[in-house]
Amino acid sequence: MSSTEEPLTTATVAADDGSGGEGGGEAGTEASAETGREAIVRAARRAFTLRPYAEVTMRGIAADAGVSPSLIVKRFGSKEALFNTVADFRAAADELFAAAPAVLGRHLVLTMVGLRDRFRGDPLLRVVFSLGIEDERTLLRERFREQVTDRLAARLTGPDAQLRAELIAGQLLGLGATLSLHRPDGAGSHAGPERLADLYAPGLQRLIDGP
Amino acid sequence: MSSTEEPLTTATVAADDGSGGEGGGEAGTEASAETGREAIVRAARRAFTLRPYAEVTMRGIAADAGVSPSLIVKRFGSKEALFNTVADFRAAADELFAAAPAVLGRHLVLTMVGLRDRFRGDPLLRVVFSLGIEDERTLLRERFREQVTDRLAARLTGPDAQLRAELIAGQLLGLGATLSLHRPDGAGSHAGPERLADLYAPGLQRLIDGP
């Protein structure tokens, strides 16, 4: 997994925060326009994760992303709109839940590892960073509950669907947390996705199948 | 679980940070001396979790704890000594791992829920808050790896002990994360410890038993 090669620097918060793409980038050409967008999203995720909402400025995000503040306004609108863009788990949930229940456990592990590689960070873990912080970031937790837990619960049959969905969400968050926590030298950093799935999927599948 | 009754306020960071006891308290009497100590530890955990090490001051911790800075120095010594006190997972690990491997899965769930209740917060989760932050808090991750993961790995038999220990640690972190994330209205907030263990322990036990 390429993400495990990175040292844990402040920049890696963005990666652990589920952000995508490479940093920097000018927005003068078509090719770099997409790079600029990703840089903005990554900078915004970092800013909203690390600082109270009220202290986050478009100017600060722009400086971090290497673009002009006016470009952010043009692309995303207001600060609130930008926050809403980065505080969204739907794209990750779409991929995570795209399997039949009978094989969902393994699919969840393989997809989580794949998303972490592709986005150079964890697609869900930033919700944990927001725990205990009272400001607009409570929206992050509400979004997670709606877009991940409730959606998962609706797909489960049998008793305790909501509780099982919460525990499945916990195992997914825990997988990302432990992979980030033990890199770059941990056993999880050197294990292939299939081996991780062999070990981690059965517990997930049991919660999916129900008691 | 009493901790689920609390709203998620800034003060709850301390609770989620594994801190113990009630806040405030004068240190003039024997009875309040212990309260003062707990208030200091809780304030220190909050400070070291939320701010860079260099920005944390004994004066700030003292103000938060409702005690004098000189009392902190008298009780804990230097800022570094205080950090070392709060960045320690051994007491939690002692309780978590106090069961034979054959029954450890269930014991882990019940102990985790019990510790969260008793400490009004999660004993391990603060290590996740430190992800991606480069300062003395990297020590928090090293401590976790030594005091939780490596200690667990040493108790496991069979192949992939280190990898399984990392995944078990992940499931423990994930349990705390999801209980905190979905409170106070979540299904996990209303489920008893035994029901949580019924659902969550089998996955842990499977990782303990090995492939």
From TrEMBL, chains A, B:
Residues of the DNA-binding region: 57-76
Domain of life: Bacteria
DNA-binding found in the keyword field: yes
Domain HTH tetR-type: 34-94
Biased composition (Gly residues): 18-27
SUPFAM superfamilies for the chain: Homeodomain-like, Tetracyclin repressor-like, C-terminal domain
Protein name: TetR family transcriptional regulator
